[in-house]
UniProtKB/TrEMBL annotation:
Protein name: AAA+ ATPase domain-containing protein
InterPro entries, sorted: AAA+_ATPase (IPR003593), AAA_14 (IPR041682), DUF4143 (IPR025420), P-loop_NTPase (IPR027417)
Pfam families per UniProt: AAA_14, DUF4143
Species classification: Archaea, Thermoproteota, Thermoprotei, Sulfolobales, Sulfolobaceae
AAA+ ATPase domain mapped to chain residues: 33-250
SMART domains found in the cross-reference section: AAA (SM00382)
Length: 428
């Protein structure tokens, strides 16, 4: 415990922490949250860095450095270890109010039961508690009843935040209401003077993704082994088969932008069982590796139909391609499909479970649909007939226009306009 909290003896030690030093000159810093949170998100997205920079701010205002407890739970076995840790801290170090930071707790057996016990027993009274994890696998509605922790997801930066931070050119325009097409069109026209810079930023976003770390080094694939090894470690902790995971990831990469099914993947690989494939698709979602989009029919999801799967960030796509195919670069042929996935991910973050794909009565696929509004992605030229629904958006490389209830606008402008700049997204 003392080893992980060197600032207890000297507050200035926090500035020597490796994660703090890495972001000392970063153009992006997330302010602390003044409430108890369970923060989930992909590996290497910056959860630990957020904890450490929050500790730094706490120490700058607190006279007693022992009020801040940080503990990495990677080597913790079960809830008994967790309870013992907090019991010792309260009895030997700090019996009063404080700040508790428990990192990567979601692989600890019965972690939620242990946390609930600590809350109910008063160990966290008058304290701020931050808990992080890399999987939502065991996060159900019944987890931590009474909502002692707000449940949040920390995603890689969205495109608007990415542009504002790394291109240092925040555009004074509000986020659009996707369902107000006329207003969206007018705001898109206002962004036309920035189109060249936004398109440049989009290509860089494709190359580096929204991970802060990949944008602070020359080659983002320098972090390939770090992310890959962390993912394999998570698979091992969950008792999953790496070979099955590789097979499924490979099929997702090969079919990116196309519809796939559990049965198809099972038959094209040595997996055999569609139920096994289904469980690994759920695993990939819970580990924040990729997102599954389901078909919407008559306003409802058809969970038995074919699915479309995209990686939640271009950097993750590159890592997984390198892992399964030995090549991490994105080819010119792949680029439109990767961009399509970026659009889907941004829609899903903002509109959650309302987003899927659909087919028209004439059998034409629509890339994404939110309620009755369609979004068709064309990485190139576009025309109004590309969208086979009565209203929605056709996304092009550089064209803009509006006819009836259809809007054509550049992809980069659309991404900037729908992004909310939220750092954390609440789980309900």
């Amino acid at each position: 415990m003392v080893f992980q909290n060197p600032w207890w003896s000297d507050k200035s030690k926090i500035y020597e922490d490796e994660t703090v030093r890495k972001v000392a000159n970063s153009p992006y810093r997330i302010p602390p949250i003044r409430e108890n949170i369970l923060l989930l998100g992909p590996r290497q997205v910056g959860k630990t860095t957020f904890l450490k920079t929050t500790i730094m701010e706490v120490l700058e205002s607190e006279a007693n450095p022992k009020k801040a407890l940080f503990f990495s739970c990677d080597s913790m076995r079960d809830m008994e270890d967790l309870i013992e840790l907090i019991h010792e801290y309260r009895n030997l170090i700090n019996p009063n109010n404080g700040y508790i930071f428990l990192d990567e707790i979601t692989f600890v057996k019965d972690w939620n039961v242990g946390l609930l016990h600590l809350f109910n027993a008063g160990y966290f009274r008058d304290s701020i508690v931050y808990v992080t994890g890399s999987t939502s696998m065991y996060l159900m509605k019944e987890t931590l009843p009474g909502r002692p922790l707000k449940k949040l997801v920390f995603y890689p930066l969205d495109f608007r935040t990415y542009f504002n931070v790394f291109f240092q050119n925040k555009i004074n325009v509000d986020r659009i209401n996707l369902f107000n097409l006329k207003e969206s069109y007018e705001k898109a026209k206002d962004l036309l003077p920035y189109l060249q810079e936004l398109n440049t930023a989009l290509l860089r976003y494709v190359e580096r993704g929204g991970f802060l770390a990949t944008n602070l080094i020359d080659n983002p694939l320098e972090l390939y082994s770090v992310y890959k090894d962390a993912t394999l470690s998570d698979l091992a902790k969950l008792g999953r088969d790496e070979r099955i995971f590789i097979d499924i990831i490979g099929e997702i990469i090969d079919s990116l932008g196309s519809r796939i099914s559990e049965n198809t993947i099972a038959k094209k690989t040595s997996i055999g069982s569609h139920n096994t494939v289904k469980s690994y698709l759920e695993l990939g979602e819970n580990l924040f590796t990729f997102r599954v989009f389901r078909k919407i029919e008559n306003g409802h999801f058809n969970n038995k139909s074919f699915k479309k799967v995209y990686f939640i960030d271009p950097f993750i796509y590159r890592v997984m391609k390198m892992y399964t195919r030995g090549i991490g670069d994105i080819s010119r042929e792949e680029l439109p499909r990767v961009v399509e996935g970026i659009v889907g991910e941004h829609l899903a973050r903002e509109y959650g479970r309302e987003v899927g794909y659909t087919f028209t009565k004439s059998g034409k696929e629509v890339d994404f649909v939110v309620r009755n509004v369609g979004v068709e992605v064309k990485y190139g030229s576009a025309n109004y007939n590309d969208l086979r629904l009565s209203e929605g958006y056709i996304l092009s490389l550089d064209e803009i226009g509006m006819k009836d209830n259809k809007v054509i606008m550049p992809i980069s402008i659309f991404l900037y306009l729908i992004s909310s700049e939220r750092v954390f997204y609440e789980i309900f």
